[in-house]
Amino acid sequence: MIKVLCDTNILLRMVAGGRRSELMNLWRNNRIMLVMSLATLTELQVVLERPKIQQYLSLTKGNAFIQLILQKSEFVQPDLTAPICRGPRDSSLIATAVGG
User: Fold this and answer.
1) Domains in the chain, CATH or no CATH each
2) Would you say 68 and 19 are in contact if contact means Cβ atoms under 8 Å apart?
3) Under a CB-based contact definition with an 8 Å cutoff, are residues 48 and 11 in contact?
4) Rounded to whole angstroms, what are the CA distances from 38 to 1, 6, 31, 70?
5) Cα–Cα distance measured from residue 82 to residue 62, given in angstroms and rounded to the nearest whole number
6) How far apart are CA 78 and CA 94, in angstroms?
7) Percent with pLDDT over 70 in the chain
8) Distance CA 17, CA 22 (A)
9) CB-based contact 50:87 (threshold 8 Å)
10) Distance of alpha carbon 78 from its chain centroid, rounded?
11) Cα separation of 89 and 91, whole Å?
């Protein structure tokens, strides 16, 4: 199975797109494995609570997505020896990818 790491923006697009999201469908049908870190999950939870996001995506739908992530994703410990990127957020994703 292919492991996939998504940043918060892609995760938001997945939940907003629902069944129209090809990535969401691949994940729900166990064609890909979503790799996550607790840091990414926490960032997603914070973003989902923003009023600007809730204009387009209800908190109820966001919370249901969080529960689905908790059930269906592979949580990994980021590898802190991974290469550092120019952007600190990108470095966290790279460390998660290496850890996964």
Assistant:
1) 2-99 (3.40.50.1010)
2) no
3) no
4) 22, 13, 23, 10
5) 30
6) 8
7) 83
8) 9
9) no
10) 14
11) 5
Q: Give Rg (Cα) of the chain.
A: 13
Q: Taking residues 30-34, what's their average pLDDT?
A: 95
Q: What's the token pair of residue 13?
A: 């697009």
- List pLDDT tens digits, range 54-95: 999 999 999 999 999 999 999 987 766 666 777 666 767 666
| Cβ atoms 33, 3 nearer than 8 A | yes
pLDDT band at 36 (very low <50, low <70, confident <90, very high): very high
pLDDT for 95 equals 64
- In the sheet that holds 2-5, the strands lie side by side as 2-5, 32-36, 74-75
Query: Is the pLDDT reported for residue 98 higher than 60?
Result: no
